[in-house]
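#struct-pred
JK: can someone run the complex with fe (ii) ion? inputs below
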Amino acid sequence: MFRRKPAPDIQLRARIGTDVAARVEANPRVVNAGASAAQVYYHDDFLDPGLCRLLIETIDANRRPSTLLSDRAGTGFRTSESCDMDRWSPTIRPIDESIADLLGIPPEHGETMQGQRYAPGQQFRAHHDYFHDKESYWAAMQASGGQRTWTAMIYLNDVEEGGATWFPQAGIKVSPKRGLLLTWNNMKPDGSPNELTLHEGMPVVEGTKYIVTKWFRERPWTVHSG
Ligand SMILES: O=C(O)CCC(=O)C(=O)O
Ligand SMILES: [Fe+2]
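RT: done, structure tokens with the ligand placed:
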């Protein structure tokens, strides 16, 4: 009898999941967040305060309303402001490379680091970072490096109140803390999308929240214009 082989992209995603998890598990500064439903880890003080401040200044100088890939979400879904960080700048590049090195993923797989700023009341409602292959954007994403595997986020400041990153189904809530890097695998260990990685950036109540986010693709990321 024939047993159908898993598609190659599923195998690739499974391998990335295993390799990255093994690498971060072996890093004494990385802590497993303890979710059984998803591979979630954090690293305290990943970025020093001076660099956090510099990134905040860059975000403030370049911010514009955040956008969404999905055509299904309504207004109010992602109300923050964002900007792309220039990966070739002498300050951003080493940070980019250190995140990639932490995970053991080649830097070329990383999308441009994105800065985000949330004022009081602003939020990013519950979503998945992986691409849904039924959505209209999928063909373009597949052509530009394929599925998103791991996400890495760094909180650039402490926030007076609110602004936690909440994974309601995996049962994890992380409060912003300057320099803390949070990372998770958007795929399951078998390489299929992990729906339990659903997460949201909860509304900021008091203060301003600044983060940078990197999404890693299964293959090298390429920008397609037009
Ligand atoms: O702001 C947060 O805590 C979450 C941000 C997020 O989910 C994202 O940028 O994909
Ligand atoms: Fe997200």
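RT: quick notes.
The mean pLDDT is 93.
The CA atoms of residues 151 and 215 lie 5 Å apart.
JK: thanks, will look after standup
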